[in-house]
Amino acid sequence: MNALTSLVAKSWYDHRRGTIGWMVGIVGLVILQLSVYPSIRDSATDWSNLAETLPEVFREMLRVNDYASETGYLSAELFSFTIPLIFVGIGMTWGARNATEEEADGTADILYSMPIRRRSLLLADTLSGLAVVLTQTAAFSVSLIIGSRILDMSIPLVRLVQAPLACGLLGAVFLAIANVIGAVSGKKSVSLGVTTFGAIALFVAYSLAPLVHFFDVILPYNPFRWTIGTTPLTEGLDIGQMLLCLTASGLLLASSTWLFERRDIAS
Amino acid sequence: MPSPIDTYRLSKSYGRHIGLQDVTFEVPGGSIVGLLGPNGSGKTTLMRMLMGLISITSGRATLFGRPVTTVDPEVRRTIGYLPGTFKAYDNLTVSRYLRYLSDLRRGDFTRNITALCERFSLDPSKSIGSLSKGTKQKIGLVQAFMHEPSLLILDEPTSGLDPLMQREFETLLTEVVGDGATALLSSHVMSEIERTACTIAVLDKGRLVSVATVDEVKRHVLHSIDIDFHTPPDLGTFRNLAGVRSAEVSGTTLHLTVFGEETEIIREASRQGATGIRTHEPTLDDLFESLLARTPSDGQR
After folding, report:
1. For residues A205 and A212, what is the distance between their CA atoms, to the nearest angstrom?
2. Nearest CA to CA, how far is B249 from chain A (Å)?
3. Which fold has domain B222-281?
4. What residues form DSSP beta bridges with B13?
């Protein structure tokens, strides 16, 4: 086995239980939400009436416009915050441990004394993380496709691939953010803490953008806007926003490798 | 041929705290250099800097002529390193861990691993998490030697090993150095350094206070000698001998504190009819006391 394959394989092996756990959670949530949908569909008029009692700005904020429709229901229940925040969690926890876990475990001295650049070691861990995010994206997408077909939903298949992909991209951005903070601090707790705070702040700013002018002004710089904010379930992926997202993640990743190669490794 | 290790005014500071200051020394090829020093003297800092784990604040270090940095990994290809606190992955078996490290070194060292495991009585099928501290240390030694490195940097290599395994390690080290490798090892055990090293480098408070051969060091270390006689000896004669720092008699036994050569003392003891001589091994404390006593306060060598 070559060095990169070996690193990626070990990373996957070490975190296999967590990966399976996240996957069970996502699929379980999809099953739960889809199982409720038939009763929502059957009382579509009531839900429309209820939604209309809310001010427009709240309907927009809570993403409950057209709640009883297929896309409206899935957008509100799965794509507005539950699943996106799960993907943020997956990306964040993986990114936070990439440049910190070996030091915390006391195994860093041996690993970083191997004839491999630290950059490659971090890249291998990041690739493993991205592969995990992609796997969860695939699991999310497949469960949505199967569930929607069982319920005779008419959402195009391509949208059921694109919308989970937007969630996956969101996870990748937060993986890259946590990577940078871990690379600088060397501490998983610091990386997790700072990234969690950042994620919550960005999510609040994204959610309240229809209400707060300042949040609306900074919305173009918000990863939630780049991904789930493009309403991929109805509109498909916005290529421009997607490229912005990938560029930001790439820059963050490049910064983290540069910083990590120059930081003192704690013993 | 460049030296395996060459440092010039190597320094490391952490804000105001100085980890290492102006360390200049060279480790010639085919030698074993023992690094001695009290806790916090900078031994581990020096070794971790040489491995590129921590950055150099000022000065330079080269391994086989190649500058040490945190970025360049190539210099580490032919180095075997054992950190002061060795930890492996508890969820792997010994063989899987060593195979993983072999992959990272891009080589197949199965034959060497098998031979080394047999030598250190290490069962490769065991899960690392189930092993004792001493057994885990053996894994550390196997991974340091498995790729037949040209340079070994070993921080407290015998820590946790039983006496039998300590001897096995010393034999292995002597063998690989005999085959052309070079070693820098730190230890708190004076006798271990004495048995294996040709040269001793002593660090104190981040400064290199002495680099000398083992014989030179021993000659300049305060140590004590007890000499038994049939009747109380002539104390004045012993007190006047070169190298004697203190002399006391209790009953018919003479207790001497000596600095340097013992030849004159033994000759005089024999002349006065000594019935037995016991030389006490200098402890690390004795060594540091002696070396620091003859080192200028500014740390110049």
Report:
1. 8
2. 50
3. Alpha-Beta Plaits (3.30.70)
4. B18
Helix (H, G, I), strand (E, B) or coil at A146: helix
CB B87 to CB A112 under 8 A?
no
Confidence (pLDDT) at B133: 94
Q: Which of A38-47, A168-177, B11-20 has the highest mean pLDDT?
A: A168-177
- pLDDT of B115 reads 97
CA nearest to B54 within chain A: A264
**Residues B140-151: b if buried by 16+ CB within 10 A, e if exposed:** bbbbbbbbebbb
Domain boundaries, chain B: 5-217, 222-281
| A106 at interface of B, judged by CB pairs closer than 8 A | yes
Q: Is B180 left (phi over 0), alpha (psi -120 to 50) or beta?
A: left
Type and span of the H or E element at B192: helix B190-196
Q: Which domain holds residue A14?
A: 3-262
Pairwise CB contact (< 8 Å): B76 & A117: no
The pLDDT value given to residue B213: 87
Residues of B in contact with A115 (CB under 8 A): 73-74, 76-77, 104-106
Q: What is the pLDDT of residue B299?
A: 39
Interface test with A, best of B43, B70, B142 (most A CBs within 10 A): B70
Render pLDDT for A67-86 as a digit per residue (tens, 0 to 9).
888 998 999 899 988 999 99
User: Quick one: DSSP state of residue A7?
Assistant: H
Q: Which chain B residue shows the shortest CA-CA distance from A267? A: B85
Contact B230, B273 (CB under 8 A): yes
Half-sphere exposure at residue A251, Cβ-oriented, CA atoms within 13 angstroms: 6
- On the question of pLDDT at B165 being above 60, the answer is yes
| Chain-chain contact of B73 with A115 (C-beta, under 8 angstroms) | yes
With CB atoms and an 8 Å threshold, state whether A6 touches B84. Answer: no
Q: What is the CATH number of domain B5-217?
A: 3.40.50.300
Name the domain count of chain A. Answer: 1
Interface probe, candidates A102, A105, A110, A265, chain B, greatest B C-beta count within 10 A:
A110
Return the higher-pLDDT residue of A41 and B135: B135
Q: Does B133 touch chain A (CB under 8 A)?
A: no
Quickly state the pLDDT bin for B284 (edges 50, 70, 90): low
Nearest residue of A to residue B144, measured between CA atoms: A110
Q: Tokens standing for B95?
A: 């063989």
